[in-house]
Design goal:
The protein is α/β, with parallel strands linked by helices. The protein has 4 domains: 2-22 and 57-150, Immunoglobulins (Immunoglobulin-like, Sandwich), CATH 2.60.40.10; 159-250, Sandwich (Immunoglobulin-like); 259-384, Collagenase (Catalytic Domain) (3-Layer(aba) Sandwich); 393-528. It contains 10 helices and 25 strands. The strands form 6 sheets. It has a 6-stranded mixed sheet with strand order 2-7-6-9-10-4, with no helix packed on it. It has a 5-stranded mixed sheet with strand order 12-18-17-14-15, with no helix packed on it. Helix 5 packs antiparallel against helix 10 (522-528). The radius of gyration is 57 Å and the shape is elongated.
Length: 535
């Protein structure tokens, strides 16, 4: 049997023609000696006839078929076949390679009877999906099939974060040492970039490299200058993974220094005592800060400081402070974590010095991280009754004084009616109105007396006592005028006109005296007791 080798490079392009010299087996024309040639008998020649004397037609059989059962994703698959013409005549045929039902390559062959040709197809595995595929080689007369597996492409390098080791708590002046373990979970060696962020800020960026399946550890240190007080998130990231942990940093002083510079700005007409008020408030925290904040602080007050840590601003009013609106006496930021470059503390003008000092102490407490729920309550409470001494007594004194307004108004109206009745010579009405005036004014005096008793218990509230005394005197003298008017009307009704005239003169004297005194509004008493005057 004769054979030829033909290489077919498999691909997605057209077929490759197989051409070449065919080697045909020798045909013997020798006859047996002594035989009669006319007998027509032949010996030594294979019989390829069909029985009718004609040779069999060409038939192309696949006599050998060989290929790898598995091939790497980036390798070349070789399919090796032997095709033989088992017929009796020279013939042509096409050898076809199919891969998963798709014709990949073809080749033309021309063979003499019993001639064999070797065909070799090559296939780029990278051009096809991984998995099991069927390859088929066929001629017009024969077909052979078998399965081949293209192996999956190895996964690229990917780095998972196995764990992050760091302390749960550190002091503010300590660095934080972090150890990160990462594993290359891919199927190839590779590299990646790992980042570490502390409190939202990237603090480290490192290149990592490992073989497939290998684990490596990376050490990262966060400097003490980054460790602010509070609970912070440490986040570690690779291209493939991310994880976060928390760490508590103990640093109670948000200012990071013990001496704070304090400036002053007055956005209202200058108050002569404001410097003393500021110094008193600062001195309080200079002495007691460590009792309530767990750190020491001192202050340097320079009113014209250009870049102070705290700027105290005296203003006419504050409409809003954070979520709070309305009648606000002071406003300051709650300083925790890291202090601002300058914390603005606003306080409202219009309060007596000791209460303005108390308000400033309260707002400065916020700049030290204290809330309304923290001690000392008489300074930090948001409830005004906790911060104003004897608040309830002061409020009740104002309320009792306000209760005198109604009867005082009724008394003055009855007094006016009595005067009109006297002018009309209605003596009965004069007496009745004068009696009403006397009684109502007495009620007003009773309320003022109650208010005076409350204020007297506060001690040293001289302005408030002076106001109450003046209002009391006005009512008392007007009541005396009403008392004289009663007697005036009665004497006149009895015909004692001389006595009536004497009572009238004394009534007018009391009236003149009453008009020389002021009856202040309750808001003035509230201001005298230390509350801010309301417009």
């Amino acid at each position: 049997m004769n054979r030829r080798d033909v290489l077919l490079a498999g691909g997605v392009t057209g077929a490759t023609m197989i051409s070449g010299c065919s080697s045909v087996g020798e045909r013997s024309g020798k006859t047996t000696e002594g035989d009669d040639a006319s007998d027509g008998a032949e010996t030594g020649v294979k019989d390829t006839s069909t029985g009718s004397g004609e040779p069999d037609p060409p038939t192309f059989e696949i006599t050998e078929f060989d290929s790898d059962e598995r091939v790497a994703y980036d390798d070349v698959l070789e399919v090796d076949t032997m095709v033989t013409n088992t017929g009796g005549k020279l013939g042509d045929d096409t050898v076809t390679l199919e891969f998963s039902g798709t014709v990949i390559d073809t080749g033309e062959v021309s063979l003499e009877p019993e001639e064999t040709v070797r065909t070799m197809f090559t296939l780029d595995a990278a051009a096809h999906n991984s998995g099991v595929h069927e390859i088929e080689v066929s001629t017009a007369d024969d077909v052979e099939r078998r399965s081949v597996t293209i192996e999956r492409e190895p996964e690229p390098a990917a780095f998972d974060i196995d764990n992050v080791r760091l302390p749960s708590e550190v002091n503010h002046d300590e660095s934080i040492d972090i150890v990160v373990a990462v594993t290359n979970v891919g199927e190839r060696p590779g590299e990646d970039t790992m980042t570490v962020s502390f409190a939202g800020t990237e603090v480290s960026r490192r290149s990592i490299e490992a073989d497939a399946g290998a684990m490596t550890e990376i050490d990262v240190s966060v400097g003490a200058e980054r460790t602010e007080h509070g609970v912070h998130v440490v986040e570690v990231r690779t291209s493939n993974d991310a994880t976060s942990s928390t760490i508590t940093v103990e640093n109670p002083n948000p200012w990071r220094k013990e001496t704070l510079t304090v400036g002053l700005e007055q956005r209202v007409p200058a108050r002569h005592d404001i410097h003393d008020i500021v110094r008193d408030a600062l001195e309080y925290w200079d002495v007691y800060a460590s009792n309530f904040t767990e750190f020491d602080v001192s202050y340097e007050f320079r009113a014209n400081a250009g870049d102070p840590d705290i700027m105290i601003v005296l203003v006419e009013e504050i409409d809003r402070c954070g979520e709070h609106t309305g009648n606000i006496a002071g406003c300051a930021p709650l300083v925790r974590g890291r202090a601002p470059e300058t914390a603005e503390v606003r306080i409202v003008e219009g309060y007596r010095p000791e209460w303005l000092t108390s308000t400033l102490k309260h707002e400065l407490g916020h700049t030290l991280g204290l809330t309304h729920d923290d001690e000392p309550a008489h300074i930090m409470s948001n409830e005004i009754e906790d911060r104003i001494p004897n608040y309830d007594i002061r409020i009740e004194a104002v309320e009792r004084y306000a209760d005198s307004i109604g009867p005082f108004g009724d008394g003055t109206r009855s007094w006016s009616a009595a005067i009109d009745a006297w002018s009309d010579q209605d003596l009965i009405a004069t007496e009745e109105y004068a009696v009403d005036a006397y009684n109502e004014l007495g009620k007003a005096k009773t309320q003022i007396d109650r208010s005076k008793n409350l204020v007297d218990g506060l001690k040293d509230e001289t302005d408030a006592m002076s106001l109450l005394s003046e209002s009391h005197t006005r009512i008392d003298t007007l009541q005396s005028a009403a008392d004289e008017a009663i007697d005036m009307a009665r004497e006149a009704r009895n015909g004692n006109y001389g006595a009536a005239e004497d009572h009238r003169n004394r009534a007018n004297e009391y009236l003149d005296e009453s008009n020389s005194f002021e009856f202040e509004s309750p808001s003035e008493l509230a201001f005298a007791l230390g509350f801010r005057r309301q417009d």
